[in-house]
Amino acid sequence: MKTMKVLLLILALACVPSYVYSAGLGDIRLSYLEGDVQINSETTRDWVIASMNIPLYEGDRVWVPDDGKAEVHFRKGTVVRLNEKTSADILTYDRDMLQLYLNVGSIYINYKGARDSILQINTPVTTIRAYYDAVLRVDVLSNGQTYVSVYRGTVYTDYREGKSTVSEGNMAFIRGYFREEIYPLSAPDNWTRWNMQRDRKIYDTYRGTRYLPDELRYYSYDFDTNGRWIYVRDYGYCWQPTVMVSVGWAPYRHGRWVWWRGDYVWISYEPWGWVPYHYGRWSFSVSIGWFWVPPARGSVYWGPGYVGWIQTPTYVSWVPLAPGEIYYGYGYYGPHSVNLFNVNINKIVIKDKYKNARVKDGVTIIHRDTFITGKPAEIRIRENPFLSEKIRPGRPDIQPEKRTAMPIIKDVPERKLPPPMVKESQVRELREKAPMQKQRDIQMQERMIAPKVQSDVRDDQGQRKIVPEKRIEKVQPSDRVPEIRKDNQIQEQRQLPIRKDDSRQFVPPDTQQDKGRQIAPLQDGKPPDDRLRERTPSEIRKDNQIQEQRQLPIRKDDSRQFVPPDTRQERGREIAPSQQQKPEIHQRQPKEQEKGKPEEIKPQGDEGISRDKGGVQFRHR
Description:
The protein is built from 11 helices and 33 strands. The chain is an alpha+beta fold.
């Protein structure tokens, strides 16, 4: 019998959705929006008008119509912004993983990932990944063609026929499944400039970081721009709002309760209304007014809304909880909370009256129909229900309706709805087509790396044009490596100038790993067995002296001839003189009367060189 009770309890807990989602529901929020931004979630199952401070979760979709913008803020500081006519889906989100799908439009991402964390963005034709801090922009056209602009860090792209690395200051253009091109970044447009300005505001160092726990330090911008920090003797430093606050204002009043993933969640319409309503508690002082008390360090737990409830057949009432008062919720929400899944709710008796219930205008009362539909309805209550009625633990026992899951009671205009290509896509199918890669690809091929240069070609308006740079490929080792090395040797030999009195041919090394090694002359047309060998310290010093002499301009009385190297890879190597003619090399020494005084040599062409007694060269252009 006891075993049967345990099994029934486990089954009951598994069937309750709020318990499943409560752990990560507060990790993502919609922090900024313009226009009729819409969301489609598991709760709404259709496109509805979004509100600021709505929590988002895996599987949620965001659509930004014409003349709109949206900003999605993640708990660890990552920000994703959507431009107009943009559709983005949150496929996966975990502690170290974030996966998005961009169907069409433009997104700007400031990724604040720790080491070994993964950001993955899928588009119709490519997969984009970043493994550390990165700032990038992704644009997807209606035909699926994708632009990837990298402003900081390194980004890796993966398409059907290959992989490439896009470094900072470059942009990749993926035309389809089989072709990719790399360009230097062009001048930022209005959308990019707006995002950079927004980054400077959000990530600036604010005063609030000193008073907030480490888990909430990324939200300091909301506090310092919408209120002030004050010192309260019983609680330490607390925060008081100064924006959207008027006479008779109280916490948990400007917004509404929305049925969201199995629980009633408070959605605030105030720009600062995310952290103060889902973390910490509120208190009131006659000399100060309302102020928010941050949670203690190590006790930071997101909650649907820390209030006490009273429900009657006519109205619903709530009051903000003060520090130390018990919150009754369906899940674990840290110290001073009770998980109603583990107790019998009918046996709970709340004897102590809530402290804030005695504050004037501290209690909010609305009609039951208003709580469900959002439509205003008149109600007159003379007495304070928290002083006369029985306090019921937990959320109101009210069956939600369609409008209960709408953050804002407003129908979506027909012209603002997403296009058919966005409506028809399904998150489950997208996850199957583009699975999350949980480990870094250590064999990533670097095929197209463009140099960090800007184009000097400009259009009629004076803007820089995007000119494709020379393609650089680094192929992984394969069976054709010996053939490739032989081809490289022949190609480099053709580029070397051969002197008439030189009886040998110079064969440069095939890879960059051979830099700094001496190559002996050929004997009977065949290289000796020790053609490549490590140099001794004396040979290295001699090579350094010859290298310095090669950089000196040739004077008329100098009997030697200077043969410059043809490639940068040959610098630091010795070219042996002819066997028939071995010119003697003299190293210039400073005169005794000029020791301690740098000697100046008349520049030839656009160069000038001066040497001090230490032999250090200074080149001037």
